[in-house]
Design goal:
single chain, 396 residues, alpha/beta, Aspartate Aminotransferase, domain 1, Aspartate Aminotransferase, domain 2, 2 domains, three-stranded antiparallel sheet, 13% strand, globular, binds pyridoxal-5'-phosphate
Length: 396
């Protein structure tokens, strides 16, 4: 077993930042139900509202436009279920009669499966194709959007290859057509600046555990005036839009993580991109015949997705793990799946090559020495696996 442990899977999840952990430990003492009227309840309520303001500030939103959820998956599901209700709103509902949804082939499964579910209910769903770098094909988008479009949902940054979409432009086209615009910004928030006003989106999804906050808590931004129908019915929490006793500790940790992210997003991006570029150049120099996936410029500063022809992804992962390097073959949600990554297939990487692809996603705490260790360790692993492989040593 290696005496090292280098975690480079920050797109799957992040550790709690020390300040977040300290704040959460302190908050364990605040046990009141945030909906109670007595002093303990008011104390908890006040802290929840402070957290809401911190999350809103990070997004350039108003506090009243932020709803706490259990995470990115719930936020995305809520938007799609809202569309189901909006489409069947009584006569006079702003979007009555609109039955088309436009999303992309690259989305996270919680969006893809929500869209497929609406399709099974009779909605027309278009999964937009993307180019070889993962950018939405805008001409196809323009040809599909129209008076029947109810929702356009395009992720801001992809979790596997890091490609960033032109959400501002996509949103402007959606709004011109009278459709609602949603973006899943789970991977973007905290890594690049995200401002709901500049983007012009109606709904935006985020998740605490991708920004050094706790798991099991997230948020949905809902622009003032846009509809939201509850996924969870019950009490009057979140103005009746998301029932259930507040997850105080999670929400407070989320607030702290958001506050920290707001102050560091620019410097984080700059410093992490330097390390990511060092890793990319080191691997390109050390391993012959590899392919870098994702957009050359419009890409998250922390993400590097590499295809290693002639080597199998799970074997690469296991070999790296033995040497103390923790990366992934794609998204954590797809781990264990024998299917090749739908994201890599969408950008035109063949199934065999997709199986030999690794995502390195960097974060706070990674050092130059860690990167150099990866650059030294990976080439012999690939050489050994290629020499044993029955896979075709295809060139890229
Ligand atoms: C792009 C994207 N959307 C949504 C999610 C789901 O978020 P959560 O884990 O908070 O449900 C993830 C998590 O990996 C993600 O990467």
């Amino acid at each position: 077993m290696a005496d090292k442990s280098i975690y480079v899977d920050y797109n799957a999840t992040t550790p709690l930042k020390a300040e977040v952990k300290a704040a959460m430990i302190e908050d364990l003492e605040i046990f009141g139900n945030a909906s109670s009227m007595h002093a303990s309840g008011r104390l908890a309520h006040g802290r929840v509202e402070e957290a809401r303001s911190a999350v809103a500030k990070l997004l350039g939103a108003k506090a009243a436009e932020v709803i706490f959820t259990s995470g990115g998956s719930e936020s995305n599901n809520t938007v799609f279920q809202t569309m189901r209700a909006a489409a069947s709103a009584p006569e006079g509902g702003a979007k009555t009669g609109r039955t088309e949804i436009i999303t992309t082939a690259l989305e996270h499964p919680c969006v893809l499966n929500s869209a497929s579910y609406l399709k099974s209910l009779g909605f027309t769903v278009h999964f937009l194709p993307v180019d070889e770098y993962g950018k939405v094909k805008m001409d196809v988008y323009r040809s599909l959007v129209g008076e029947k479009t109810l929702l356009v949902s395009v992720m801001m940054a992809n979790n596997e290859i890091g490609t960033i979409q032109d959400i501002g432009e996509i949103a402007a086209i959606a709004k011109k057509a009278g459709a609602y615009m949603h973006t899943d910004a789970v991977q973007a928030v905290g890594k690049i600046p995200v401002d709901v006003e500049k983007l012009g989106v109606d709904y935006l999804t985020m998740s605490a555990h991708k920004i050094y906050g706790p798991k099991g808590v997230g948020a949905l931004y809902v622009r003032t005036g846009c509809p939201l129908y509850p996924l969870i019915h019950g009490g009057h929490q979140e103005d009746g839009l998301r029932a259930g006793t507040y997850n105080n500790i999670g929400i407070l940790g989320f607030g702290k993580a958001a506050e920290l992210a707001a102050g560091e997003v620019e410097s984080y991006g700059r410093s992490i991109a330097v390390l990511r570029d060092r890793l990319r150049e080191g691997l390109l120099a050390g391993v012959p015949n590899i392919k870098i996936n994702g957009h050359p410029q419009d890409i998250l500063p922390n993400t590097l997705n590499v295809s290693f022809p002639g080597a199998e992804g799970e074997s690469i992962l296991l070999s790296m793990d033995i040497q103390g390097i923790e990366a992934s073959t794609g998204s954590a949600c797809a781990s264990g799946s024998l299917e090749p990554s739908h994201v890599l297939l969408a950008i035109g990487v063949g199934p065999e090559l997709a199986h030999g692809s690794i995502r390195f996603s960097l974060g706070w705490g990674i050092t130059e020495a860690d990167i150099d260790y990866i650059i030294e360790t990976v080439p012999p692993i690939i050489e050994r696996l290629r020499s044993m492989s029955t896979l075709s040593p295809q060139r890229v």
